[in-house]
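Title: Prediction job returns without error message
Component: structure pipeline
Severity: low
Priority: P3
Assignee: unassigned

Description:
Job completed but the reporter wants confirmation the result is attached to the right record. Sequence as submitted:
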Amino acid sequence: MKTCIYPGTFDPITNGHLDVLHRACRMFDQVIIAVTDNPDKKTFFSTEERIRLVSENLEATPNARPMAFSGLLVDFAKAQGATVLIRGLRAVSDFEYEFQMALMNRHLDAEIETILVMTKEGYNYTSSSLVKQVAAYGADISDFVPANVDAALRARHDLST
């Protein structure tokens, strides 16, 4: 069984993330959505909330499951029996960071490969940070996030639907 890891903060998960996930699920038998649990990183949603928001969007991807992780990604991948890391690219500006990460991960464990997947056109300017910022002002973000995330952000910001 070919397993890959799709890591990220997913704070919150966006339609761009889900686009990359759906394509990863077509390429691999099992996709583990590794939700970063990094106490040094301030997140809007708790790890448990982020895992729930991800889980609620997995009906169309039965071969995907979320898991919290902390520490080195290559160690987590090895522990899960994964040999591939999936990373999404929105724009050329993402490439340099992802390239550096892929090279470092290869240095740490040469058996772990990184595949960079470009998001579908239309999601290339969407980020979790931007979605949170726009949502805080009450703007419509329904084109960029699944309905459960839209509702969670509205509730957190105490906005009516």
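Comment from assignee: result matches the submitted record. The mean pLDDT is 92.
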